[in-house]
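How a chain folds remains the central question behind the approach discussed here. In the encoding step, the backbone of a single protein was reduced to a row of integers, each denoting a local shape. We regard such an encoding as a compact summary of how the chain folds. The sequence in question and its structure tokens are set out directly beneath this paragraph:

___
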Amino acid sequence: EYVHVTLGVPWWTSIAIGTLIIRLCLFPLVIIAQRNAAKMNNYLPQLQALQLKMTEARQTGNQIDAARYSQEMMLFMKEKELNPLKNMIVPLVQAPIFISFFMGLRQMCNAPVESLRTGGLWWFNDLTLPDQYFLLPIITSATLYATIELGTDSAKLSSQNMQLMKYVLRGLPLLILPFTFNFPGAILMYWVSSNFISLIQVGVLRIPAVRDYFKIEPLQKFNPENLPIKPKGFREGLKDSWTNIKITKELEERTRLDDIQFHRAGRGPIVKTYKYNPTKQTHPTKSAPISAKKHE
């Protein structure tokens, strides 16, 4: 609203400018995430080797080796200054901002703010109403898919769970498409603007000169067949993830039962495993006196 009143521009322009300002403020966090993602990609073979050993140890129930490999991975990541959580900085910060924009624009449309009725562009002139031609929802889903595809490709999701998440994210635009049909044009205008900015941002950060300027390491390319963890399809990856979950639950249940049995053995009565009590001394049996005959 401040941009709309101060600059005197239409609402669709105000929404786009406001989105751009917010994204520029978040750009330093994007650089931090990109630097970390590039490092994790370049150390992908070492990380996958440790991850594979840790997974195999857990599946076989060898908790000692699993803990040892987990410690080795933590030390390796600390030494190389790797942190998977840094890749989540931007989504975690963007989420409350997106919700704030969503709620604010929806309230303005429900009020409604009269200037929003003529603040649109081309076929969506009234920003308080849903797009009657469904073009904005389709553009929103298409740009969201492109953003996810380019973003996950540059992030190089490596682990099996991350690969599964990549497939889930790919289906997200299709899942939300029916819900966006009823969104007011103002909300979709913000969403489309944010998606286009993300696409431009991803494209610019792929330029080698730009990466050098922001001190982002070049991405090394690895042959997937030479990596410790081989690439898998959606169905096979889902099956392996389900198998790993079942094995983990079985091991946890086995550990729980062992703990219960251990505590019972320590607190309960001693289970008799001998025919006699070895802690008690037994008296030697009295043998009959031996009579010796005098031989003549």
Q: What stands out?
A: The first helix runs from residue 2 to 7. Residues 30 and 91 are 10 Å apart (CA to CA). The two ends are 137 Å apart (CA to CA).
